Amino acid sequence: MDIFDVFLLEAVVNGVLLGGILALLALGLNLIFGVIDVVWICYAELIMIGMYAVYYLHVVYGWPLWLAFAGGVALVSILGAALHQYVIRPVLAAEPINQLLVTGGVLFLLQGVATLAFGVEFKNLGVRLPTLEVGEMFVSFARLIAFLAALAGMIGVYLFLKRSYLGTAIRAISQDREIMPLMGVNPNRIFLITSALGGGLAGLAACLLVLQYDIHPAIGLSFGPIAFLVCVLGGLGNMIGGFIAAFIFAQFISVGGYFFHLEWGYVIAFLFFIAVMFWKPRGLFGAKS
Amino acid sequence: MTPWVSRVGLPWVGLAALALVPLSGMGNYPLHLAIMCLLWGFVYTGWALMGRLGMVSLGHGAFLGIGAYGVVMGWNHFGLSPWLGLPIALALTALVAFLIGWPCFRFRIVGHYFALVTLALSEVVRMIIVALRDQTGGSLGATPNTALAEQAWSLGALQFSSKVVWFYIVLTMWLAGLWVWTRVDRSMARLALEAIAHEEEAAASVGIHVTRLKLRVTLISALMTCVGGVLYAQYQLYVNPETVSGIGISLQMVFGAIAGGMYVRLGPTVGAVFTLLLAEVLRLALGHDIHGLDTTIYGLLLVLFIIFMPKGILGAAIEGWQRARRPVAAPATG
């Protein structure tokens, strides 16, 4: 096999693995947007807090890794519910854009708190995972785990929404926010549960990202914008669309980065996004207006 | 004070006082703060032209970045005077604003979608600047080649070592920005755009050309921001992709305008003064050691502002003042 093809194939495989993580990020955002009609601009900052939580529980307090992961997910889940209760709820009746902007304030708040509490130094979990060698390709084990866990998380959310009573209520609210309260559904309770679930997904993403990246207070800015773009690309609130868009976007980053340079991979992916906006302004799979 | 003075005279008295500020013999540091307040006040005013009409852009960092890097790169690599770099940067900004604005307005992309699409734009510009690191210096930033080695100022290079000169330059631009605001405010277009912000379909159905009007105000707003970027780069003589482009500065513009009040003319300027003074007071009170406290308080205040004072400081103050003057309110209409 030609050596170039191996690297290209490696880029494609890495793109698929990256797509899994992006799909997980998009799922949380889409869930919240689909049900509550709010975009959490601070979503990536919740993930950042989760990464710190895992780091402190594991490295500083010596919890076993799986317990630290559970703690991280639980903490971000609570944060998500608190975000809805104390920040989103007071502005639910205001102009929709205020709901987006208020979470932008939370973005700065969380960044500031993280800088205050944890400092600006890079922190590393210190867990080294091996690199797998498949044929002639090298695949990061951490990325493979992240991909599989992201898939498992998504299937879990899907089953929860489709099979459980509560999930049915959440889907019903997302279809009609005005009628469901008349049917005896308490929308605020559903919103809180959805926010906790969205926070939990952010926590799961934190556990997977902390295995691959060093932690610092501004890390959210490096993948937050990408997560929003994936959501818009797939159609805001469309979970399946977001899932597919994540893999398309990841291929642009990974293969584009292979042909040029990693940063140009991002630029190409972003330009692709803007081009799609010309062609399908509501996203590739968006129909809801 | 007679009503005549308060209605007509007060702005002129204020302006005269402002123009005399550098002559008061104040130190370089307060003068620097005054320059930054006016400069950011100008940029925030430009943003608010769109924001107040329901077009919340998170992409203005792109225009700021094009302006700042446009002149610095032109000067450093091609020896192009900022006076020539400026029109090139403006043309590029207009092109980008059109490319992003036209499909958005044509296909009725509003609200969250518009905010997120424009956010992509500001990130694209930031990443292009970082990726072109051989030319731009990447995330380390860039410094325009100095023209001040043997002289105190160079008009051709738009570099002045005197802060007093810069004060008058940004004061002029700030006044021009307020003038643009007033022109837009008094135009028919503003009424039409307000109608669009409330009910776009209805506005279109009564014959308002939605796309064209939105594009026009977007162009004005983007070009003002680009000029702000040029001034920032030439004054600071240093540009950095994080401080002139990307999501951080874009959000900062939005919040500055909102904190001050984006529905009133001086609101964005009040927002700029407020956020700058807040950062300085916190820095002076706490020193450099406590990292992050200023961002924490800033973020907390923004959340509180949007929840409790969505019209901003000046907006709420004017409202309170009017209510105090007319205790018996006329029955609300509309």
Report low-confidence residues of chain A grouped into runs of 5 or more. Answer: none
Report the biggest beta sheet of chain A as strand number plus sense, adding barrel if it closes: 2 strands, antiparallel
**Beta-strand residue percentage of chain B:** under 5%
Estimate nothing, just give the exact number of structural domains of chain A.
1
Unreliable runs of chain B: none
Which helices and strands appear, and what pairs or packs with what?
The complex is a heterodimer of chains A (289) and B (334).
Chain A: H1 3-36, H2 43-60, H3 65-88, H4 96-118, E1 131-134, E2 137-140, H5 141-163, H6 165-175, H7 179-182, H8 187-210, H9 220-234, H10 239-259, H11 262-279
Antiparallel strand pairs in A: 1-2
Chain B: H1 3-19, H2 28-51, H3 60-78, H4 82-106, H5 111-131, H6 133-136, E1 153-154, E2 159-160, H7 163-186, H8 188-198, H9 200-205, H10 210-236, H11 241-244, H12 247-260, H13 267-286, H14 293-308, H15 312-325
Characterise the protein shown here:
Chain A is mainly α. Chain A has eleven helices and two strands. Chain A has one domain: ABC transporter involved in vitamin B12 uptake, BtuC (Orthogonal Bundle), CATH 1.10.3470. Chain A has helices at 3-36, 43-60, 65-88, 96-118, 141-163, 165-175, 179-182, 187-210, 220-234, 239-259, 262-279, and strands at 131-134, 137-140. In chain A, a hairpin with a 2-residue loop joins strand 1 and strand 2 (137-140). In chain A, helix 1 (3-36) runs antiparallel to helix 8 (187-210) and helix 1 (3-36) packs across helix 9. Chain B has a domain at 27-143 and 152-244. A two-stranded antiparallel sheet of chain B has the order 1-2. Chains A and B meet through helix 4, helix 9 and helix 11 of A and helix 4, helix 5, helix 12 and helix 14 of B.
